[in-house]
Write a structure and sequence with these properties.
about 450 residues; 21 helices
Length: about 450
C-alpha cells in the first residue's frame, strides 16, 4: 500500500515537472525491494518451519503404537505400566520448558532449534538401544530425552510461527505447519506398525503358547529388536536436520519488537513481569487440558478399542485415523481463519464439538464408539493453533518465558492418559474416558469465551 501511494504521488509530481519525484524514486524502489525481501524470508521461514513440524509430529505420534509395542516387548501386565510411555515423554515438557527458555535467550531461536534436534537424536538412539535390550526404565529415559529435545524445539518454534506475521492470523500459519505435523502423525504409526508390529496377533499367540519362560523371552527379544533400526535411522536424520537448520537462512526474530500489542492505544500500563499476564496462565491450563484430550484421542484410542475386544492388528492403526481427522481440521482452519472465523470462535466451536463427540462415544459401542473418538481429532485440530497465539499475545520480550510456561502445560499429555489407564479397569473404560474428557472441553470453552481476555485492556 505504501509503495502504491508513493508511486501515484511520484507520477503526479512528475507530470507537473517537479524535481522532488526524481529525487525520491530510489527510495520507493528501496521500499519495494525491502518488502519483497521480507516476503521471501517469510516464505523460506515457513518452509523450514513446516519441515520441523513434520519432524516432531512424526516422533510425537509414534507414542500410540509404542504403547502396544512396550506392553508386549517388556511383558507388562497392565495398561497403566504401558502408559508410562506417554508419562515419561510428556513430563519432559514440564521439567525442561523453563530451562529451554533460558537456553533460547542465550542461543537465539535458530541455534536453539538445531540444538533441540541433536538432543532428540540422542534420545532416539538411546530408546532404540535399550528397547532392544528390553530394559524398560532406560528405554523410558530415552523417551524423556526425546521429550526434552521437543520441549526446546516447541518452546522456540511455536512462538516463532505465531509472531512471524500478524498475531491475529497466527492460527492460520499454525494450521499450515499443523497439516505437515498431522500428515507425519498419520504416516508414523503406519511405518512403525509395518516395521515393528507386523503380525502382532500371531506373535501374541506364540507368547501365550510358549512352553517355558526361556522360550517366551527368546520370542520377545527377537520382537523387541525390530525397533532398533527404525530408531537408529531417525537419529541420523535428526542430526542431519539439526546441521541443516544451523546453516539455513532462517531469520532470527526479536520477540520484544514483534509481539507487543498487549494494551490499547490509550493505555499507559507497562508490564514487567510474566505474572502480570493472567491470560497467559489461564492459557497454560488450557494447553494442559487440551494436550490431555489430544493424547487421549490419539494415543489412547488403541487401548480404548481393545476395550471392545477389537484385535491388536486393527487397533495399532487407530492413531492414524485420529490424525487424519485432525488433518481435516487443519485444512478447515487454513480456509476459514481469519477470513470467516476468528481464532476465538474457532476455539469455542471446537470445544462444543469435543463435548458432543465425547458424549456420542460414551452412548455408543464398538467400532461406532471408536469412530467418535477418532473424530475428536477434528474437534482438537484448531485448539492449539488458537490457544497458543491467544495466550502469548502481547508478551513482547517475555515471549520466550511465556512460551515456556505454555509448553509446560503439555504435561497434560502425561497425566490425563495415565489417569485413564489407571482407573479404566475399576470404573469402565467408557465412563472413565467420558469423566476425564468433558471437564477438559468445558475449560477450553471457558477460555475461548472469557479466559483469553483476562488482564488484557
Amino acid at each position: 500500500m505504501l509503495f502504491i501511494c508513493a508511486t501515484v504521488c511520484t507520477k503526479l509530481f512528475c507530470a507537473n515537472g517537479c524535481a522532488f519525484a526524481d529525487k525520491n524514486y530510489p527510495v520507493i524502489l528501496s521500499v519495494k525491494r525491502d518488502m519483497m525481501l521480507k516476503s521471501q524470508n517469510n516464505r523460506s521461514a515457513m518452509i523450514i518451519m513446516a519441515i520441523l513440524f513434520f519432524v516432531f509430529g512424526f516422533v510425537t505420534w509414534l507414542n500410540g503404537p509404542l504403547i502396544t509395542y512396550v506392553k508386549l516387548a517388556f511383558g507388562l501386565d497392565t495398561d497403566s505400566k504401558a502408559f508410562m510411555v506417554t508419562t515419561a515423554f510428556y513430563l519432559a515438557y514440564f521439567f525442561l520448558a523453563l530451562p529451554s527458555s533460558w537456553v533460547l535467550e542465550k542461543t537465539g531461536m535458530k541455534k536453539g532449534m538445531a540444538l533441540a534436534l541433536v538432543v532428540m537424536a540422542i534420545g532416539t538412539f538411546l530408546f532404540g538401544h535399550f528397547a532392544t535390550k528390553r530394559d524398560y526404565p532406560m528405554s523410558l529415559s530415552g523417551l524423556f530425552i526425546i521429550g526434552s529435545g521437543l520441549s526446546l524445539l516447541q518452546t522456540a518454534s511455536n512462538p516463532y510461527i505465531s509472531i512471524i506475521g500478524p498475531i491475529e492470523s497466527a492460527a492460520k500459519r499454525i494450521s499450515i505447519v499443523g497439516i505437515c505435523n498431522k500428515t507425519a502423525g498419520i504416516i508414523s504409526p503406519i511405518v512403525l506398525s509395518a516395521f515393528v508390529l507386523k503380525g502382532v496377533n500371531e506373535l501374541e499367540g506364540k507368547v501365550n503358547a510358549a512352553p517355558d519362560t526361556k522360550t517366551r523371552d527368546t520370542i520377545l527379544s527377537e520382537f523387541a529388536s525390530n525397533i532398533y533400526m527404525p530408531y537408529a535411522i531417525m537419529a541420523v536424520i535428526l542430526i542431519l536436520l539439526g546441521f541443516w537448520i544451523l546453516k539455513s537462512s532462517l531469520p532470527e526474530i526479536r520477540t520484544s519488537e514483534a509481539n507487543t500489542q498487549n494494551t490499547s492505544p490509550n493505555s499507559d500500563k507497562v508490564r514487567t513481569s510474566i505474572f502480570q499476564y493472567p491470560h497467559l496462565w489461564l492459557g497454560a491450563v488450557c494447553i494442559f487440558v487440551y494436550v490431555g484430550v489430544e493424547v487421549m484421542a490419539g494415543d489412547a484410542i488403541g487401548t480404548y478399542g481393545k476395550g471392545f475386544n477389537i484385535p491388536t492388528d486393527e487397533t495399532k492403526y487407530f492413531t492414524s485415523y485420529t490424525l487424519a481427522a485432525m488433518l481435516l481440521g487443519y485444512v478447515i482452519g487454513l480456509i476459514t481463519i481469519p477470513k470467516y472465523l476468528s481464532q476465538q470462535k474457532a476455539l469455542k466451536y471446537s470445544a462444543f464439538l469435543g463435548i458432543f463427540l465425547t458424549a456420542a462415544a460414551f452412548l455408543t459401542g464398538g467400532y461406532l464408539s471408536v469412530a467418535f473418538v477418532a473424530a475428536l481429532g477434528l474437534a482438537n485440530a484448531l485448539m492449539w493453533p488458537a490457544i497458543f497465539p491467544l495466550a502469548i499475545s502481547g508478551l513482547g520480550k517475555l515471549t520466550e518465558k511465556g512460551s515456556a510456561i505454555l509448553i509446560m502445560g503439555i504435561a497434560g499429555g502425561a497425566l490425563i492418559p495415565k489417569a485413564f489407564a489407571t482407573f479404566k479397569d475399576e470404573y469402565g473404560f467408557q465412563l472413565t474416558f467420558f469423566v476425564l474428557m468433558v471437564p477438559c472441553y468445558l475449560y477450553i470453552l471457558y477460555y475461548s469465551v472469557k479466559g483469553y481476555k483476562s488482564g488484557i485492556k
